[in-house]
Fold this sequence. Notes:
Strands 1, 2, 3, 4, 7, 8 and 9 form a seven-stranded mixed beta sheet that branches. The chain has eleven helices and nine strands. The chain is α/β, with parallel strands linked by helices. 42% of the residues lie in helices and 19% in strands. It folds into three domains: 3-97, Winged helix-like DNA-binding domain superfamily/Winged helix DNA-binding domain (Arc Repressor Mutant, subunit A), CATH 1.10.10; 104-171 and 272-302, Periplasmic binding protein-like II (D-Maltodextrin-Binding Protein, domain 2); 173-270, Periplasmic binding protein-like II (D-Maltodextrin-Binding Protein, domain 2, 3-Layer(aba) Sandwich), CATH 3.40.190.
Amino acid sequence: xxxxxxxxxxxxQMLYHWDDIRFFLEAHRAGSLTGAARRLGVSHTTVxxxxxxxxxxxxxxxxxxxxxxxxxxxxxxxxALAQRMEDAGTAIGDRxxxxxxxxxxxxxxxxxxxxxxxxSRVLPQLAVAQPSMAFELVPVPRAHKLWKxxxxxxxxxxxxETGRVVRRKLVDYDLRLYGAPKLLARLGPPxxxxxxxxxxxxxxxGDLLYxxxxxxxxxxxxxxxxxxxxxxxxxxxxxxxxGAGLGVLPSYMARDRGVVPVLPERVAFQRAYWxxxxxxxxxxxxxxxxxxxxxxxxxxxxxxxxxxxxxVE
Length: 313
C-alpha cells in the first residue's frame, strides 16, 4: 500500500462518518445511485449527498464523471480501505453478538438449475431452524461478483484459480441428452451420434453463454441444428418436454419429468458445482452456518446428482 493509501486509511478512520463510507460502498456495488438507494431503502439524493460529503472531505473524486459509474484511481484505493472498515465493523458485531448467536441476512447466488431445482427446496429448512437469520436466494446467470459483494455465497460451475475466495467442491453432477417420447416416436430413435443431425436441438443462447462448460451441443457434433434457444436450463427442460428438440440436461432435473435419455452411454457429460465465499467473511457465524448447511444438504442427497440408468426418466 502506498503512502497516499495508508494516509487515506488513517484519515478515513479518524475523521469520516461511517455512513458516508457505507453509501460509497453500496453505490459502487450497485453501479448507480438509484441501485444503491434501492438496496439501502433511501432516496437517490440521500446517496448522492453522502458521497458528495465524503468526496469533499477527502478532496478527491471517487467516481468518474460521464457514462457509467466507474471508480477513479483514488476511488479504487479508497474502496480497499472502506472494505477493511466494513470487515472490521462486521467482525466487531460478530464478537459482541457472541459465537453462539447466529443472525443476519445471507444472500446466496446460484445458477438457475441448482437454485430452482435444489436450493429452493432445501433452504427453507434452514430458515425454519434459524429464525434469527434471513435468506435471499438470487439467480446468478453470469460470473459471480463476490468482490463486489453482490452475494455472500456463490454456487459456481467453475473453480476459481485466483482471488481471495474460499472454495469448497459440492458435488459432481451428470448430464445426459434427453428428448420427449413423442419427438422420438415421430423421427425414430437415433442409433448413433451421427444420427442426431436429423433432430432439432434445444440449447443456450450463444452470446449469453457465460461459460464454455455449458456448450454441450457443439461438443456432441458441430453440425447440430438448434431450433430453440433459452438462457436458462429450466426453460430448456420445458422446451425438451414440449417436443421442441433434443437437449442436454442435468439428470437430477430431468428425472421423472416426462423425458427419456437418448444414447445415454455415448452422449454423457459430467460437471461440478463449487461453493465460493469471500475469504474475509468466511468465519462470520451467519456465513458459516449457511455454507455448512448447503454442503451437508448436498452430501446427504449426493445420489440425486448422478445419472441412474435403471430409473425410468
